[in-house]
Amino acid sequence: MKSKQLLENPEFHDTEPFAQPLLVDQYSRIIRWMLKPGQKIAEHKVPDSPFYVVILKGHGTFAGDDGQEQTYGPGSLLIFNPGERHTVRALDEELIFVSFLQAVDSMRPNRTGGEIGRE
User: Is residue 12 part of a domain?
Assistant: First the structure.
């Protein structure tokens, strides 16, 4: 078994959100996202995989395909359908969340690594 403390040593970048791969293997991708207040992730989508988000710290707005921003905070679980467009914006505090998605051929299945993957 491997483990990672998800709120330990967060890394925030001044100019843009930071995505830290925690686990990258042939089955899945787990990424820890860190946003400073006001930072945002532009609209994008994850093709061919459901996309799950668990918010660990702070509050932010998240919007799915309908474009309606909703505010979520610690303990929230968000579920996006495969290919669903989404955006994220940190409010007036640091935002940390973890995303989970399954590996698919379009995601370079031979690539492995991440913080946990190197242990």
Answer: no
**Cβ contacts of 58 within 8 Å, gap of 6 or more:** 35, 73, 74, 90, 91, 93, 94, 95, 96
Range of the domain at 90: 18-117
Does residue 28 lie in a domain region? Answer: yes
For residue 93, the cross-strand partners are none
Overall number of domains in the chain? 1
CA pair distance 54, 32, nearest whole angstrom: 10
Task: State whether residue 66 is helix, strand or coil.
Answer: coil
Give pLDDT tens digits for 3-59.
Answer: 999 999 999 999 999 999 998 888 888 999 999 999 999 998 887 889 999 999 999
In order of 18, 35, 40, the CA distances from 15 in angstroms are 9, 10, 10
Distance, CA of 14 to CA of 36 (rounded, Å): 7
